[in-house]
Amino acid sequence: MSKSSQNDTPPDSVEPANEENIHRRSWLKPSLDWLLIFVPIAIAMRFIPGLYNPTWLFIVSCIAIIPLAGWMGKATEHLAERLGQGIGGLLNATFGNAAELIIALFALSKGLEGVVKASITGSIIGNLLLVLGLSLLAGGAKFKEQIFNRTAASMSATALTLAAIALLIPSVFHQVAAQVPVAEGGWTPAKEQSLSLAIAVVLIVTYGFTLLFSLVTHKKLFLGEAIQGAAQKVGHELEESEDDDEKHKMVWSRGKSVLVLLVATGFVALISEFLVGAIEEARGSLGLTEVFVGVIVVAIIGNAAEHSSAILMAMRNKMDLSLSIALGSSLQIALFVAPVLLFASYLFGKPMNLEFTIPEVIAVIAAVLIAQQISSDGESNWVEGVQLLSVYAVLAILFFFLPDVHTTATAPQVINSVAPAVSHP
Amino acid sequence: MSKSSQNDTPPDSVEPANEENIHRRSWLKPSLDWLLIFVPIAIAMRFIPGLYNPTWLFIVSCIAIIPLAGWMGKATEHLAERLGQGIGGLLNATFGNAAELIIALFALSKGLEGVVKASITGSIIGNLLLVLGLSLLAGGAKFKEQIFNRTAASMSATALTLAAIALLIPSVFHQVAAQVPVAEGGWTPAKEQSLSLAIAVVLIVTYGFTLLFSLVTHKKLFLGEAIQGAAQKVGHELEESEDDDEKHKMVWSRGKSVLVLLVATGFVALISEFLVGAIEEARGSLGLTEVFVGVIVVAIIGNAAEHSSAILMAMRNKMDLSLSIALGSSLQIALFVAPVLLFASYLFGKPMNLEFTIPEVIAVIAAVLIAQQISSDGESNWVEGVQLLSVYAVLAILFFFLPDVHTTATAPQVINSVAPAVSHP
Amino acid sequence: MSKSSQNDTPPDSVEPANEENIHRRSWLKPSLDWLLIFVPIAIAMRFIPGLYNPTWLFIVSCIAIIPLAGWMGKATEHLAERLGQGIGGLLNATFGNAAELIIALFALSKGLEGVVKASITGSIIGNLLLVLGLSLLAGGAKFKEQIFNRTAASMSATALTLAAIALLIPSVFHQVAAQVPVAEGGWTPAKEQSLSLAIAVVLIVTYGFTLLFSLVTHKKLFLGEAIQGAAQKVGHELEESEDDDEKHKMVWSRGKSVLVLLVATGFVALISEFLVGAIEEARGSLGLTEVFVGVIVVAIIGNAAEHSSAILMAMRNKMDLSLSIALGSSLQIALFVAPVLLFASYLFGKPMNLEFTIPEVIAVIAAVLIAQQISSDGESNWVEGVQLLSVYAVLAILFFFLPDVHTTATAPQVINSVAPAVSHP
Predict the structure, then answer these.
(1) Could you tell me if A378 lies within 8 Å of chain B, comparing CB atoms?
(2) Residue C406: which of B147, A184, A364, A228 has the closest Cα?
(3) Does C209 contact B at CB distance below 8 Å?
């Protein structure tokens, strides 16, 4: 079997309408929407005194957020469709990870800085390893070899390398500057904060240029497939064209999009508040560390919608869209959400810095490195999916065993206590 | 001179027969087999009291193992040829590094965990830097530019990146978790062991999928050259076809293969026992550290057979085979031999973990990174060989100067004693 | 717009003459030569007692060196042109960074080892990130997509990876060996020195092979464009050919080249002496650390000439030349200048080792990694320039906030004093 071309499958690049289309014809089939039932359950558990149990509230809230995040994403995409390529693209690029942003803002306001940073780490590695890994595996199970635009993928991978370097720097600064007495210019929290702020500005400016590149100067690289599909349609496929008309009708009106967006966002905010409020007690009773909850649990929940879309696209052999979801989402978290959270933290009066723990930094670097290797050659197969998933498994194992490290204000290393050894974890 | 095509040289993809062919016509020429003379010498030195000298026994055993490992490899390949592609490939993939495995098992049973880990490190970097470097240099000296299948090489390079990440994690865990008191979830040997066991399972499962990929679903990528050669033969080269018949006759019978394999394995086991038994005394008298002996000496000996085959293939412009030996052997050590040694260590009642020292981890990451860069473009030249050898030289210098570090059970850092400074090494 | 071919622009591969050509027609236009006015100013400030002020002398000397370095480079290239490809290439390859070398030698003789190492770091990351970043941005602003020879760029990028690994090793050795008591083979300055010397030998030998590759065995890869241009000219462009004659006349005579080279070198040496003599007092009064002055200030000054040439070439869509200047200059610093400085340090009786600080090593690794990603696909656009500049900005921020760390002789970590915390930097 030769290289599978993307023209073999019918072109259906207008995603949202298409998804609804599928949804309408298959409301009995399994869907994330069934999980909406957990929204009222979470509300009931939170407000009816007898039902309150932080662990269960945490679990139910986690599940309830998944379909809500999906609806937020869907409404954003429909609205973007109505607003046209330019502003629509910008909307998608800035609100695509709104659910994660809302959860993180609530966590920040409660002072859970560790969870926030862990969930940034988790979103980056989750998209690069878990989402991309499952996509390549699912796509590769159907198609022997899949191809995609190397230039667009490389641009994203390089931007992620830049982000990984940027997130490494505050830790390096802490480790090195803490070796010097404060009087001689050594580490202080204020310096760490200034350094982080400067790096956040560089990241968000770079993100602005990345949008300029992908939405304005080189948009064809990223829209290539849609345009190609459209040209083909006009030429010689009439019923496809009709299908396209039908699709266009399927795009929600501006009013409906805004309404759905507002309602879904409201519910995400409400449930996020439950989730974050219960997080400390829940992880205590589940025996999970802060870093594991942030890196693995919160990150999987916040990105569940991306997971299903990216995998679906890969199974339809639309690798450009699949990669653009997985890589683009990581990019957005690293270059946009992380700096925005830092800026927002000043509003809460609890300034956050960008100093991540060493394991978090290593996880991000490892994920970026292997994703870059896999995406740089413009072709994929199932074993590359397995390799990404293996790296995810290895990192998840690390975060499962890792205790929470609370960095002290003056020195990077805490002296070991001589507590008696605990046996098996 | 344009790109040299692989069709310029006569196709002779059935390696073992071909090698024997060469061997028969050239028994007077230099051959590793002459080194078999050291087998009886080693045995004599070990059992005749007056001749016993641990340093010389170590050296003689080192040399004696080289041709024995070659015969084990040869017998495995002949047997694989007889058993057909599927099972044969599996046999090659699992017993290809049997000599290293046997040496390591003896070292483990003696409690030489440091030597075992160092020899794993050394086999990985030795194959990626020394074997591949010499191959590209020798091939590049004859051919201006050599080409190979980028997809197959990339798959191996990515698997090695995954392995490098996996081998980094236990060290990171130790460094970070040791900063937390044990009562709050800090580092314990038991946790390190559980973490290592979980990572070993991920590695060996990934290795299974890698075999599935290269032997079943995408075997054409790896057999490309053989098939291409065969097609060409059938078409228009009759005497080649006869040569092929002759070659087929040259493949050993199943009985001969098994017999040679058993005898060679028996001798390897015997000599390994001598080698490992003498290692501690020998390195003391030679002034070498445990880590240098493991990383450089044992690794070169265990991989001598791979060295000669990979270089020979490169000089015949069969770069796909050459790379597949060098990259494949590293891959097998990292994803198969390392986990198997960990599992086997439980049988000896001395469980080994996967925590490597920082220099070992850095050496593996450096080797994988540069090998990936060189193999990702599908073409090679002599200066790339020089670059790989330079990295090997730099790492060998590090391990030559590096003292043995004995990690303590509770903390990653040992406090410096105030011993008087020793002058030049 | 499709891929812009390098044949679209008129071929003018003989650079020096061409530059002078432009210069002559545009002596009123902004030029680095106007900065030559700072040479007499610096001399006056140094020798007229009333004008002496170390801070201003430092600043004026910095500016004065920029055009002098440009004239040294220009004279070297003209001389190289007259001496023919072989020896000329060698001359360019060894004296291309003579200005940096002279500044570093003066700094070494004053015992400013920290500044020397920082300026090596700064030259490597400055060329890879700042020079290459500005070139891709300036070129990409004019051309949608620019292409270059992937093989030549990869060779340089891989050599830089090797250099990054080599510069990492002495730090790793210090960190690890310092954990072992000296009596058991632990860290001593003498061992660090021997290790550094051995690595320097490997680097300079590798540099020799790299020259052999690019000037002898594979010179076509690097001269590809010039030859291609020449062939085209002969074929069908007469007035281009005349232009070429004119250009040839423009190449300076051997005598003029040598004279200009000697005079410029003399002034560079003189001004370097001023600069280095004033460095300590100046950075005190400017509130800059030693590492910031070395990595950012001295490096930008020493490489100003490369900056303007590389950007000019990129704007003329001669990406092969632009990359060869930026990557080649980094390569030369890492593989040639660094070892030469180490060897030269013995002449001053103050042997320098190759142990860089952790932030320096990380900066080099980060720069090499991202430059390798960007140069490995053989095409570039403006956003890749932005990405390189962003990494440079992030690293500059780090070095701005970083205090000077003075490594002690016996242990890598200094215990924090309990000095009162200083507020915002």
Answers:
(1) no
(2) A184
(3) yes
